[in-house]
Amino acid sequence: MSHPDKPYIPDRNKVAPMDRFSLAKLLRQGFAGQTGWGAQWRAPERPEAAYDVVIVGGGGHGLATAYYLAKEHNIRRVAVIERGWIGGGNTGRNTTIIRSNYLMPESAALYDHSVKLWETLSQQLNYNVMYSPRGVLMLAHNVHDVQSAMRHIHANRLAGVDNEWLDPAQVKAFCPPLNVGGPLRYPILGGALQRRGGTARHDAVAWGFARAASALGVDIVQNCAVTGLKRDATGAISGVETTRGDIACKKVGVVAAGHTSVVMAMAGVRMPLESYPLQALVSEPVKPAFPCVVMSNTIHAYISQSDKGEMVIGAGTDAYTSYSQTGGLHIATQTLDAICELVPQFRRLRMLRNWGGIVDLSPDRSPILSKTDVAGLYVNSGWGTGGFKATPGSGNVFAHTIAHDEPHPINAPFSLARFDTGLLIDEAAAAAVAH
Amino acid sequence: MKLIPCPICGERAEIEFTYGGQAGLTRPADPAATTEAEWGAFLYARENPKGMHRERWRHIHGCGQFFNLTRDTVTDRFIP
Q1: B3-79 is classed in which CATH architecture?
Q2: From A359, which residue of chain B is nearest by alpha-carbon distance?
Q3: Sheet holding A237-242, edge to edge
Q4: What confidence score (pLDDT) does residue B4 get?
Q5: Which of A4, A58, A356, B48 is 20 to 30 A (C-alpha) from A211?
Q6: Which residues pair with A54 in a beta bridge?
Q7: Residue A233 contacts by C-beta under 8 Å, 6 or more apart in sequence?
Q8: A316-362 confidence digits (pLDDT tens)
Q9: Parallel, antiparallel, or unpaired: how do β-strands A53-56 and A78-81 relate?
């Protein structure tokens, strides 16, 4: 779960756009001492004067949007404007869980679209994103949890999304480190297992999309903050002001996660979003000891082991909005207390790092992938505490929305207008836990 | 743990409080007369500023008092 200490700015002249990885190249580089790898994507120091589309935010969702704009819609004069370095925000700070077992049919369709893209993403991008469908097990600790899990399982199976019930013995067989049957504050009464769920390597997702997008002509401009959104006399988007110069463009896609409200306010748009700190932490690396992803909505615990060996643990959000990028210690402590009961061997693990990311929560805890009242302004936000899993699917349908000025059928229900019509996609209630 | 200044009890630990979100939201006097967009904005649109935020708190595990505070959402410090 590391992120680089300083921005990685390769020399754009070194890049060969069709520089694909292959076994032969790997062997050649092996003999050459790995000295011949060039920069993997172009990173101009400053943006050009004009683009067809500007994407605000160089996280996974923004980079995926740029990639699919170029790949599927042949819109290649695209810039991704990133205030820090790509993948350095929530993309590099999450627990990398991938699943699609959401209750509402609209959500299941969106997230499953993403899972299907994950399955072939490494081949698509020619970059190993280390997608690992090791199974996501969602624990049930009380009668209410069991009923909620059953309802999800039945709804998912009707929607064509795999999800199955494991009784306590099956939970123990699937994930032996769990303390099944112990006298716990939160006993394990079973779990819902999505076998296609799993994890991917977060940095590789950002880098893979950046590399593939760059090869198609997308400019990725880092250390460049957007300071204003320009509109013409009709009110339509006419450009973007940045700390590295102004850009003329007719279309802007805002994919700024926790800072979406701030960017949208530059165009006078108030969003139905609130930004909260969400915490995660990783342990020292240990040998493979935890075979799958385990999560518990009731205690807000999310556990998996990274390929480096670190236990990656997510906690809940803080109780109040903030841009501080630090979460309350008592929030993490509450989760760790419960996790140490669930997995007693974790008591001896030392935690190396913890951090807080700022997530944008929507009122119904479903994302907003939408046109806005401002012509040429599109917004992809509201992913809240679980956006990583949707990275490819989100970029795919958002690119369609920008290219056609109409939503893809999959993201049509996730419009801003739903907060006026009341047609909410209420995953907040569906999760059946205190948010 | 963060201390929150209750106007009656003084500074107390944050776990004694519940957060009520943006302060000063006024329910339209005649909901039936509002447009969908106005009603949607009342229910859901929020300032969510990076900086000064006027917000609602309740000392629910203490005196029960509702009150407003201004907080810098970057530093989480309350501004008197």
Answers
A1: 2-Layer Sandwich (3.30)
A2: B48
A3: A226-231, A237-242, A245-248
A4: 97
A5: A356
A6: A79, A252
A7: none
A8: 999 999 999 888 999 999 999 999 999 999 999 999 999 999 999 99
A9: parallel
Cα distances from A340 to residues A298, A299, A344, A428, B39, in angstroms, run: 15, 12, 5, 27, 45
Q: How far is A363 from chain B (nearest CA, A)?
A: 7
* Predicted confidence (pLDDT) at residue A15 exceeds the cutoff of 90: no
Q: Is the CB of A270 less than 8 angstroms away from the CB of B45?
A: yes
Pair of tokens at residue A19: 């520089």
Cα A93 from Cα A116, distance rounded (Å): 23
B45 touches chain A (CB under 8 A): yes
Chain A residues with CB under 8 Å of B2 CB are 328
Q: pTM for this one?
A: 0.94
Contact assessment for residue A4 and residue A207, using Cβ atoms and an 8 Å cutoff: no
Residue with tokens 């999760």: A431
Structure tokens at A426: 């209420």
Measured between alpha carbons, how far is A108 from A159 in angstroms, rounded to an integer? 7
| Whether the Cβ atoms of residue A395 and residue A209 lie closer than 8 Å to each other | yes
Residue A31, judged by CB atoms within 10 A of its CB (0-12, 13-18, 19+), counts as: exposed
Q: What is the ipTM of this complex?
A: 0.96
Residue A225's nearest CA partner among A46, A82, A42 is A82
Q: How many CB pairs under 8 A join A and B?
A: 70
pLDDT, one tens digit per residue, over A115-140 is 999 999 999 999 999 999 999 999 99
Q: Report the mean per-residue pLDDT for chain A.
A: 93
- Give the number of other CB atoms < 10 A from CB of residue A264: 23
Report the sign of the C-alpha dihedral through residues A401, A405, A407, A408, in that order. Answer: negative
Nearest-10 crossing angle of helices A391-404, A60-73: 50
Distance CA B46, CA B66 (A): 20
Number of Cβ within 10 Å of residue B54's Cβ equals 14
Residue boundaries of the structural domains of chain B = 3-79
Q: How confident is the model at residue A382 (pLDDT cuts 50, 70, 90)?
A: very high
Measure in Å the smallest separation between the Cα of A417 and chain B Cα atoms: 8
The Cα–Cα gap between A325 and A358 comes to 6
Cα separation of A91 and A68, whole Å? 18
Residue from A168, A144, A163 nearest A153 by CA? A163
